[in-house]
Amino acid sequence: MMDYQWNLKKFDELTNIELYRILKLRTEVFVLEQECLYPELDDKDYACLHLWAQQQGEIVAYTRLVPPGLSYPEPSIGRVIVVKEARGTGISQLLMYKSIETIFAQFGPNDIQIGAQFHLKSFYEKLGFAQKSEPYPDYGILHIDMIKSTLK
Q1: Number of domains within the chain
Q2: CA torsion angle for 39, 123, 62, 31 (degrees, to 10)?
Q3: Are 130 and 145 in contact (CB under 8 A)?
Q4: N or C: which end of the chain has fewer CB atoms below 10 A?
Q5: Full domain range(s) for residue 81
């Protein structure tokens, strides 16, 4: 496994360069690669935590950790990205484990809700998330709501 430098910052702690790199990555993956025209800048970033892994100064994985009450009643993990070059290396699972651990540390051991791309359902199920909605189109990409319950 490669060595990653992990970063966690509130919006107002991000440097201009970090913010630019994060937004550039999100646009490259969600808008260009996935050909999805949607409001990437949704005014939620201000209230969220931003978690990312760097390798040799480049961001290779990122999530936006959303506090409870902003997108869903529960805290949420969104804008999950792993750059093409790092896919299949195991960093996706590591990113999600760190995201879940950080949500528990920051917001308490609550349930976590996500809006997942439907084709990634089994990936999220392996992390303990369960489907809670029928598939629905979200800007042209099929999604499902999933919850990771803290109850065993």
Answers
A1: 1
A2: -30
A3: no
A4: C
A5: 5-148
d(CA 149, CA 34): 29
Q: Is the dihedral of CA 76, 1, 13, 19 positive or negative?
A: negative
- Six-digit token string for 29: 């993956």
- Between the alpha carbon of residue 69 and those of residues 15, 19, 33, 88, the distances in Å are 26, 24, 30, 33
Identify whether the C-beta of residue 112 lies closer than 8 Å to the C-beta of residue 128.
no
Furthest C-alpha separation in the chain = 42
Rg (CA), the chain: 15
pLDDT digits (tens, 9 = 90+) for 75-114: 999 999 999 999 999 999 999 999 999 999 999 988 999 9
